[in-house]
Design goal:
CATH topology of the largest domain: C8orf32 fold
Strand content: 15-25%
Number of helices: 14
Protein name: Transglutaminase superfamily protein
Radius of gyration: 24 Å
Pfam families: Transglut_core
Structural class: alpha+beta
Order of helices and strands: HHHHHHHHHHEHEHEEEHEEEHEEEEEEE
Number of strands: 15
Number of domains: 3
Organism: Sediminitomix flava
Strand order of the largest sheet: 5-4-3-6-8-7
Helix content: 25-40%
CATH class of the largest domain: Alpha Beta
């Protein structure tokens, strides 16, 4: 043992004697290892255990026991204690949080991070923003809706492929006003957690059905996890991506659906922007999405037998890029002059894989009405030849 190792070992003995009365028996061995790994930053956790109220000590024990090395090296006592205190404040204040199992509270409300994003001190600010929105909520459903309906106005962030990076922290996204699906999911997860709503990020590193990845949010309601999104307030377990998620390949980890976890798990969440990072824990929830999709398909088949899904994208003109050239307009689909579907095309601030979709008999001819650059109705004739076929329409023809 060299001199530096001796000092670490000596310091650790002192830490144990100071903190062992506060460390939960459940996590005692894991906390011991974490304090050894923290090395020169171990004093941070010594102070935290000394100052933490007894009723919050198990929460601190959980965080330290499961904390990645980057946080053992860098977090401060003040940061930890403030985040923990505010999480417990939300737990005691809101009815839906008071009844949570400890395991859910510790893993999906208490943590200060979801993935590998910068560790912002967001909780006090987000509590001030969102606690007034949920104060009159009668149950967790109303609370989730209140957060999701108001988050865009509160944080002023929209989806864009021009965001600086994928793994933005809350304030990095708020500073530029732009975020990827991942950045939006981080914002929404933190907003939920700030008012005691259990939330985590889910996603896939690569769709089975097409090239690309996507991340979204899951919330814990009445003993079950349900998915939602930044742009889907009040909508659970049904979004544009369910058809792709439901076709995930359960035999290939590259195509699994993952759910983030602060607690150590057998798997790690694949971060497509840096696949070398393996400290973000995850559960494999692929089977649940497959079952959700199969249930939806069975229902649709019963209602619309013999029809196939078709998708429409509307662009300003043919020179526009897929990310920024999309136009929001009402589209009207007709067969033999009779309207069969109506809805809005996806705009540049929405996810790249979101479309205006409808179902129609295979090989049926149909028309789509939309407005040209002069505001006049324009009609495009098309044919539904293939399942999940995508048609690109243009406001202005070059």
């Amino acid at each position: 043992m060299n001199y530096k190792q001796f000092l670490y070992a000596f310091a650790f003995v002192g830490l144990v004697s100071c903190t062992e009365n506060k460390v939960s028996d459940t996590y005692k061995n894991e906390v011991k290892i974490a304090l050894q790994n923290a090395k020169t930053n171990a004093k941070t956790f010594e102070k935290a255990f000394q100052q933490i109220p007894t009723e919050q000590a198990e929460g601190l024990s959980f965080l330290v026991a499961n904390m990645p090395q980057r946080d053992l090296d860098s977090l401060t006592t003040e940061y930890l204690l403030e985040n923990i205190d505010l999480a417990y404040k939300a737990k005691n204040e809101f009815a839906w949080a008071r009844t949570l199992p400890d395991s859910i509270f510790y893993n999906d409300v208490l943590p200060y991070t979801s993935l590998n994003e910068r560790r912002d001190n967001w909780r006090a600010d987000f509590y001030k923003r969102f606690a007034p929105k949920v104060k009159d909520a009668k149950d967790i459903y109303e609370a989730i809706l209140a957060v999701n309906q108001n988050i865009m106005d509160e944080v002023d962030v929209v989806y864009s492929t021009k965001r600086p990076k994928a793994d933005q922290s809350p304030y990095e996204s708020m500073e530029c006003g732009l975020a990827s699906c991942t950045g939006l999911s981080v914002l929404l997860t933190d907003a939920f957690r700030s008012v005691g709503i259990p939330a985590r990020i889910a996603g896939t590193p690569n769709w089975t059905t097409k090239v690309g990845n996507h991340n979204w949010v899951e919330v814990y309601i009445d003993g079950e996890w349900k998915f939602t999104e930044y742009y889907y307030p009040g909508q659970f377990d049904d979004a544009w991506f369910l058809g792709d998620a439901g076709k995930a390949n359960p035999n290939d980890p590259k195509n699994w659906i993952y759910a983030s976890s602060f607690k150590k798990q057998p798997y790690h969440f694949p971060l497509v922007w840096d696949l070398s990072i393996e400290y973000v824990n995850a559960e494999n929830v692929t089977d649940r999405y497959i079952k959700l999709f199969e249930a939806k398909e069975a229902k649709l088949a019963a209602e619309k037998d013999g029809k196939i899904p078709v998708h429409i994208l509307l662009f300003k003109d043919q020179s526009c890029s897929p990310g920024d050239g999309r136009v929001v307009q009402e589209l009207v689909v007709k067969v033999d002059g009779k309207e069969i579907a109506r809805g809005n095309s996806a705009g540049p601030q929405e996810d790249m894989n979101k479309f205006f979709s409808f179902r129609i008999e295979q090989n049926a001819k149909f028309t789509v009405d939309f407005k040209d650059e002069r505001g006049l109705t324009k009609t495009k004739s098309l044919k539904a030849a293939k399942v999940n076929e995508q048609f690109r329409l243009y406001v202005q023809e070059l």
